[in-house]
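Thread: Modeling a multi-component assembly for a lab meeting

Hi all, long-time lurker, first post. My supervisor asked me to bring a structural picture of a complex we are working on to next week's group meeting, and I have zero experience with this. I have the sequence lines for every component (313 residues in total). Could someone generate the structure of the whole assembly? Inputs are pasted exactly as I received them:
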Amino acid sequence: MCTYVTNTATVAGSGYGGDDWFAVDRAVVYFDHPQDAPLDHALCIDLRGAGARVAVELDAASARRLAETILATLDHDEVRPLL
Amino acid sequence: MMAETITIKGHGGDDIEAYFARPTDGDRRPGVVVLHHMPGFDREMHEIARTFGVRGYAAVMPNLHHRYAPGAKPGDAAAAMREAGGVPDEQCLGDVQGAIDFLMARPESNGKVGVIGYCSGGRQSLLVACNLAVDAAVDCYGGHSDLAWAPDLRCPLLGLFGTEDAAPSPADVVALEEALQASGKTYEFHSYDGAGHAFFSVDRPAYRLEAAKDGWKRIWAFYGQHLKDA
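Re: Modeling a multi-component assembly
Sure thing. I ran the full set together rather than chain by chain. Output:
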């Protein structure tokens, strides 16, 4: 199935596009047919800036682990005071 | 058979990219508009367009994502389309009308045109069949179709589905069938056990050999009946 479900988050930072870094200002997230990953469906993330993007396609379990790892890192005792 | 990337007029008179595959023997033959899947105007869909050329059809596949990233790789264009919120139905219809006009103006045209679409293109194929003048339409596992379209179907419809698909689910397929029956439309549906969405996609885990082989046979028989000269 095609999900047609797309969510966009405003972000601030940089992405590495292979040749150089570029500013990213949004993350487009969707769960649908991937371009490359050998999966029928994937959690796709496009970190986008002016004319460039960093893309990943992850299986659902990987995507959950990534999300949980991001939150665990931000919630770490040594990190929280810096936020 | 010859295949090349060309430019055609699409919705609003825009120039859009398209892929054109056809035999070169000069005989009159039907046209087919191929509507690509959600991942876009990719190598796999080019292969499908060439398959129609090999089988004796003049096939044109408009790049429905062209406007979102002209000249970009298929994955980048699909990502840009995704961020933009998808392809509007009106824009799709305009692009397909441009492809139909292109095919009908070709010297090899026998005056008949079919449409076929896969995945999101399956939904768009049904949309086209309910809004534009085509002679036969094939919907390959298009989900999220609007049952309210059914009374407007303008040509025979072939539907190819997998019973393990979630969109369209088997219940969705039955609902569409009932809507077509209620409107007295001509259709032919086949649902394959052991197959889900995208069973024609040779590069994906969803590929199902038996369903795909039978599906292609159904397509050739259906187009042979409705598009070839009497």
